Amino acid sequence: MDNRPIGVFDSGIGGLPVLYKLAKAFPNEDFLYLGDNRNVPYGTRSEREIKRLSEGNLRELVSLGVKIIVVACNTVSACIGDDFSGRRIFKIGINQNNREKFVGKGAFLGTPFTVGEILKRSPELKANIDFYPLKDLAGEIEKEPFSDVEVFKHRFAEILAESFFATKENNFAPFMDIAEHKKDENERKEVFHDRARVFRDHFEKQIARYDFLYLGCTHYLFKEKVIKSLFGDIKCYSGIPSLIENINFYLENNGIFGENLQTIDFAGECARKNADTFAGYVLSV
Known about the structure:
With 285 residues, the protein is an alpha/beta fold. It is built from twelve helices and ten strands. It has a six-stranded mixed β-sheet. Strands 7-6-8-9 form a four-stranded parallel β-sheet, with helices on both faces. It is globular, with a radius of gyration of 20 Å. The two termini are 29 Å apart.
């Protein structure tokens, strides 16, 4: 038995849906959540910056007496190890446990850093997964996690289109270069307008090919239903079930399950900025 809390770390509010699932899976564990709202988003930063910020937050959780640390941020998970200052770290993301479940053709949505690191470590995944680095989506959700559905759907489509256009593997990259170098706003709009029908037809066919969708940033879980609706009736993965399986195995194998009534506390910037707004989300969704 070990009644110390489980520490959960994210670059902002994205880890709260993960915290909710963990609280349901481990009803006798206490949790301490630290969200680095001051420096979010992480996904557009350099690896050095991400490591520096992450290690500072991990040190804070260790100083607060957590028994293990759950990194509920795909971007951070892509660049840190499995242990920190004597604490076991459990990371969300694609691993052997969940990648074996992928069947058919998939789409992976994530931050530019996460996508880049996955493709660097596991380039073979490109054989059956198309990767979309979404530059601004996590930041958009961080600002307005409960924004109007139609407003978000429009913004998400724009960000997804920008990623699709810029992908070298399709025929739209030259078009993006042309549009971006047009100095006159009307000319730029005209270029986009001329290609809009071609893009829409091509991308709708592209989406129809997918058998599964992987949400590679925990911020996206706030908008999972909306995002999934644009891809149709396909399976959606996030890595949470395998994360819970790994944590359960470790706690059981080491005899460190808790026997608490369960409390959920917030640390650092998250406590000052988001506790009132988001604690209800964690406990009631």
